[in-house]
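hey so u asked for the seq, here:
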Amino acid sequence: MDASAFEISASGMRAQRLRMDLIANNMANAGTTSARRETMRTPDGQTFVRHIPYSRKTAVFMALPGGGVAVPRVVDDPAPFPSEHDPDHPHAVPAGPDAGLVFSPNVNSVIEMVDMMSASRAYEANISALDAMKSMQASALRILA
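ran it, structure tokens below
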């Protein structure tokens, strides 16, 4: 059975709202240099803790049979983490080939703002589709009455 126009627009609005939430989360964590920690080992056997920065999150959209959209999962952006050499930073890599480097999140605020505008426009388009459907149904009822 095909989904109604209301269900299709509602699914699109839910997906875009999740996308906007992810973008807001990405922007909020753009400066998080230690979202998690990993214990590493140097070639000579020394162990050390490496701080892993926040990784940008993106939504994976999937078309539903009969109409609509779903977000089956949220994935980490595979883009590399930018780094700078700052051995005095508390999250600098203490040993190994990356010693002294501080890795930053792979969040680009310009890309996030463009994505936010795109998600906002898509959300508004779904609202317009809902309004048009409501108007058509109201007109049909007036004709029948």
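The two ends are 29 Å apart (CA to CA). The mean pLDDT is 92.
lmk if thats what u needed
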